[in-house]
User: Which sequence fits this backbone?
């Protein structure tokens, strides 16, 4: 894993389910060359994200998550920086 690599776990709250959030997050992460996953939670107002990759691209992805797709209304993004695991080969929708 590159020394400039990082990882984060984020919980995005707001109107984030049923608005294409996971699909567009997947496309954005793939465009940035990140690995990890995005998934809905049982709480209809929360989406979880795990992302790994170059820190600059993680920063760009985090900025995107703070807005989301056009139909979303992101209220808060709680982020925890993590140590990259290197186990993910692609970014997926869970």
Assistant:
């Amino acid at each position: 894993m590159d020394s400039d690599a990082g990882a984060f776990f984020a919980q995005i709250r707001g109107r984030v389910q049923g608005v294409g959030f996971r699909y567009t997050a997947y496309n954005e992460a793939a465009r940035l060359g990140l690995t990890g996953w995005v998934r809905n939670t049982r709480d209809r107002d929360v989406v979880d994200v795990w992302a790994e990759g170059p820190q600059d691209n993680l920063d760009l992805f985090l900025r995107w998550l703070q807005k989301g797709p056009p139909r979303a209304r992101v209220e808060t993004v709680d982020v925890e920086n993590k140590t990259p695991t290197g186990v993910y080969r692609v970014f997926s929708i869970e």
Remarks:
- The helical segments are 21-31, 55-65.
- The longest helix spans residues 21-31.
- The beta strands are 5-15, 35-40, 46-54, 73-82, 91-93.
- The chain has a mean pLDDT of 95.
